[in-house]
Amino acid sequence: MALPRSDSFTAGALLxxxxxxxxxxxxxxxxxxxxxxxxxxxDTNSAAAYYQLGLDRLGADRADVAAxxxxxxxxxxxxxxxxxxxxxxxxxxxxxxxxxxxxEGVKSVIESRQVRQVDSLRLRALLLDPFVYEDLDRKLVxxxxxxxxxxxxxxRDPTVLRTEVEYEVRLYLKSQEAVEWRAWLAYAERRLGDAxxxxxxxxxxxxxxxxxxxxRLHVQRxxxxxxxxLRDSAVVExxxxxxxxxxxxxxxxxxxxxxxxLLEHSLGVALEKAGDLAGARxxxxxxxxxxxxFYPGHVRLGRLLAAAGDTAGARxxxxxxxxxxxxxxxxxxxxxxRYYAGGDYHAVVTTLEPLLEQEPYWAEPYLLRGLALERLxxxxxxxxxxxxxxxxxxxxxxxxxxxxxxLAALRSP
Length: 413
Prior knowledge:
Serine Threonine Protein Phosphatase 5, Tetratricopeptide repeat, globular, mainly alpha
């Protein structure tokens, strides 16, 4: 039985470096689900509580409920990549009839408006954290392989049992042609050393001319190295991945934009962790050359400048990020923080105003805007914002007592 090689998958199905950068404005296009019910004593302001609920429901094959829980985790913590990635997985699994054609890259499926919106979730996760740990991939891979094997066996015997299908899947995964599937599963199961070795084996058999395929293998090997703490090795693999894409650019006609910006961004993060800040800055700069609208490049450069004490330079980079992605929550929050640190409280207030509308469930912007209003002498405005922070902050937030005291002082005659 021949299963498709995993490089036949759509970019949305685990190809890090080949997604065109989609617009950040996705909230308005999403249908807001009801909040799933948490346990009786759970904190409804906790993103982690909704995330855990999503994992529990995904494990119980309730992908629809899991997707809703992950949605609310992402709304409570817009800077957290994991719920976005997890919701992408849940939404794919929630439509079983679409799973196989989606994973095999059927054009009518992957180019549909609904699927493109689903795929944008994973992209948004990668923009926040290019090394978000994709351990839920195991569920996608095993479900896909099971469905394909079952369909093949039932063509010959409609009465085939599920246990027979599972046996055939295990048998297939032991074959030489399934080496990349084994690498993928090892990565998802946190067996990172095995993943590194298996991706090396897959690369040994990958045709030299298939640059896009080889690039993806290098990317996945680099991600495994990174998450194992071997940042220098991750840098080498990501460099190889970028070089494979460059070779492809030179030899074939590109029909669809293949984004090296995401790969340069990943390389920059790995270089940062390896201590090569100059190399990281160069990588982020190359990402912006590849795509002027790639706002995470500006965010990363801003963080480097802020860490070096260059407040003005950091503000400039965050402002550039907002110029190209005005609805991006993280750079707006970072810019407001830089303004606050510099004492420009009027700028804090105006910068955060759109964010309160875009992310009304996020506690942090209310706190910062409230503190800025307090500095400006707007006691009523400050009190209103600090009260909204307390309404949204987690019960375990260590700042609650201090903010409650400040609020009481603002409201005292």
